[in-house]
């Protein structure tokens, strides 16, 4: 659980104990019981937010523990190696005196075999710990995450269950969004086929929006392509002057808009997916938390997320049908 045992949740006033499910505010670091944070809906440490400060723990004397094995301690926040008698991290100031013997992401032994996610500086994951060789806040800084690491109120393992197969690249983006901020990253699938990608990722509302925009901006191109006919057959019989300057302007504007419709999701699709995943996971946890069946909860998360090849095929068929319908309506109302 990190360094929070002995401190109090500012929502309920209860002291954090071993085994408590704790989440922290991504902005100020104030810890909460997960249920308390979900009930509040936001961080209520407004005074700290107004000052722009960071949460500092206050421990009860009978709950504090010290490092008794005389081993160097690696900071759970930034990974800096500190002397065994250190009270605070010499790099970032994180308290080191509570639960230093507890297994934490930075203090796992070299042969740690838990199902963790590892990222080197090149962004690749493997089993072990998660190491980020360089962060947005300085070269050489290491950060370590495992499947229990908190990413904006949700465990990294839950995100992995939600993403499904081959979560490596997506999880690295999730960690960056949740820990370091930022909203943009490149998604080639959303760049090439935005009207299909979101259906594949089970985001039908966003997919429907981009399908509508793609069809709308593609109408001038459809007119230009099909009025001359296909294999000698006139597809569009409406008499529309496609050689005029006015239509040329419309065609160019539609082309620019269609490019924008591709670029925007290419840059923000991963962030939208991250927000969707976080919302879905928190909703499932809120509904099924009382059941106590962790396996069932993880199954619900996996079923809600993942990908859908059937939805992809269906979106392609709908897209083709709507384009044919557009051609039919053009013929009907312009002839």
Task: Write a concise keyword list for the protein shown above.
mainly alpha, two-stranded antiparallel ribbon, 8 strands, 6% strand
Characterize this entry briefly.
With 335 residues, this protein is mainly alpha-helical. It contains ten helices and eight strands.
Q: What can you tell me about this protein's structure?
A:
By secondary structure, the protein is mainly alpha-helical. Helix content is 45%, strand content 6%. It has 10 helices and 8 strands. It has helices at residues 34-40, 46-51, 156-163, 168-180, 188-192, 194-200, 204-226, 245-288, 294-304, 309-334; strands at 22-24, 31-33, 73-74, 81-82, 130-132, 143-145, 150-151, 154-155. The strands form 4 sheets. A two-stranded antiparallel sheet has the order 1-2. The longest helix has 44 residues, at 245-288.
Structural class: mainly alpha
- Compressed to H and E, one letter per element, the order equals EEHHEEEEEEHHHHHHHH
Spatial ordering of strands, largest sheet:
1-2
Number of helices: 10
Whole-number average pLDDT?
76
Please tally the β strands and state the result. Answer: 8
| β-strand amount | 5-15%
Q: What's the alpha carbon Rg, rounded to whole Å?
A: 26 Å
In the predicted model, the low-confidence regions spanning at least 5 consecutive residues are 60-68, 98-141
Tell me the distance between the termini.
Answer: 70 Å
The largest sheet is: 2 strands, antiparallel
Which bin fits the share of residues in helices? 40-55%
What is the 3D form? elongated
